Amino acid sequence: MGKKIILSGIQSTGKLTLGNYLGAINNWVHMQEEYDCYYMIANLHTLTVRNDPEELRNNTLKILATYIAAGLDPEKNTLFIQSQVKEHAELGWILDCYTYMGELSRMTQFKDKAAKHADNINAGLFTYPALMAADILLYQADLVPVGEDQRQHLEITRDLAERFNKLYGKTFVVPEAYVRKESARIMGLQDPESKMSKSATNPNDVIFIEDEPEVIMKKFKKAVTDSENRIKFDPEKKPGVSNLMQIYSAITDKNMQEIEAEFEGKGYGDFKVAVANSVIDNLKPVQEKYKEILQNKDYLKEIYTKGAESARKLASKTLEDVKNKIGIL
Ligand code: ATP
Ligand code: LTN
C-alpha cells in the first residue's frame, strides 16, 4: 500500500494569522513524513472577494514562502498554486453541475461572507464549496487537515464524492476532515467569541505571523480576559483566558491541566507574558527564514513550477476519468 494522500490549502487574501499557522500549516508540518502531501495556495478562491491585482500576486508568493519557512519541505511535499493546475477550474465547473442550490445555501461561510461583503455577493462566493471539492477530489485525498470552520465544506465534498460515485461508479476517494482539537479554532484576542481571521477590522484582535516580537507582546498584553484572575479552562464562562490557554497548548503541547497547574496562584499578567513569549519564540525562526526566502523570487518560481507539474500528473488522471464517465469529449 502507498502512503495516504493529504490535500489542503489557504486562500491568498491578506497576511496569514496565528490561526492559520496553528490551525493549518503547523499541523501540516507534522504530517509530511507519514503522508503524500499536496499543499496549495487557493488563489482562485481568493477571487470571491475583491483584491488589488498586485497584492494578490504578492500574497500568493508570501503564502508559499510561509509554507516553506514553517517547515514544509518542497522536496517532500507538492507545493503549488491552484490556478496553475487548470484541472481545478475544469472539475470545479463540472461539480457545480452536481451541487444543489439548497446545500450551498446552508454554508455558514457563505452567509458570513455575504453579510461582510453585502455589495459583492457574487456567484463564485456561492459556489465556492464546489471548487473546494474539486481541489480535494482531483488528488483522491484521504485526509484534509483544516480548522473547525472548514468542516462543513468537507461534508459537502464527501456528499459530492458519494453522489458522483453512485451515479458513475467508483471515481473519487471520499475524504475525511482532519481537525486537531487543540488548534481547531483560535479566537480573536479582543473578541474571543469569534474566530481570529485575516480579514479582522481591529488589528489588536489578530496576531499576524509576520508581527514583530514587541507587537506580539503588546497584543497579548491587551488581550481581553475576565475579572477572576484565575487560569482555568472554561470556554463558556472564560472565553478569553481559554483561548490563550488553547494557543499556549497548541504551541507547547501541554494539556489544559498541565497549564492550570503551571499557573496555579499566578495572575493574568504573568500568564499573558508566558503565552506571548511562547508564540514569539516559536515564530522567530519561521520569520527569519520567511524574510530570506521571499527575497529569492527565482527559488519560489522553481518550487511552484515543479509543484504544479507534479500536481498535474494526478489531477489530469482524475479529470480524464470524470470526463470519460460523464460523456465529455
Ligand atoms: P478569511 O479571514 O479571509 O476568511 P481565514 O483566516 O479564515 O481567512 P482561510 O484561508 O479561510 O483563512 O483558512 C486557511 C486555513 O486556516 C483553514 O484550514 C482554516 O480552517 C484555518 N484557520 C483559519 N483561521 C483559523 C483559526 N482562527 N483557528 C484555527 N484555524 C484557522
Ligand atoms: N476554503 C479553505 C481554503 C481551501 C481549502 C481547499 C482547504 C480551498 N481549497 C481545499 C482545504 C482543501 C479555507 O480555508 N477557507
Description:
This protein has helices at residues 18-29, 43-46, 53-69, 87-96, 101-105, 108-116, 123-137, 151-168, 213-221, 239-252, 256-262, 268-295, 297-326; strands spanning 5-11, 36-42, 78-81, 143-145, 176-178. 42% of the residues are buried. The protein has 2 domains: 5-179 and 297-326, Rossmann fold, CATH 3.40.50.620; 203-291, Tyrosyl-Transfer RNA Synthetase (Orthogonal Bundle). Helix 3 (53-69) packs across helix 12, helix 4 crosses helix 7 and helix 10 crosses helix 12. 54% of the residues lie in helices and 7% in strands. By secondary structure, it is mainly α. The strands form 2 sheets. A 3-stranded parallel beta sheet has the order 1-2-3. A two-stranded parallel ribbon has the order 4-5. Bound molecules: adenosine-5'-triphosphate (ATP) and L-tryptophanamide. Adenosine-5'-triphosphate (ATP) binds at residues 10-11, 13, 17, 19-20, 23-24, 146-147, 149-150, 183-186, 195-199.
CATH class of the largest domain: Alpha Beta
- The number of domains: 2
Mean pLDDT: 96
Number of strands: 5
At CATH level 2, the architecture of the largest domain is 3-Layer(aba) Sandwich
Distance between the termini: 33 Å
**From the structure provided, what is the oligomeric state, counting identical versus distinct chains?**
single chain
User: What's the helix-strand series?
Assistant: EHEHHEHHHHEHEHHHHH
Question: Ligands in the structure?
Answer: adenosine-5'-triphosphate, L-tryptophanamide
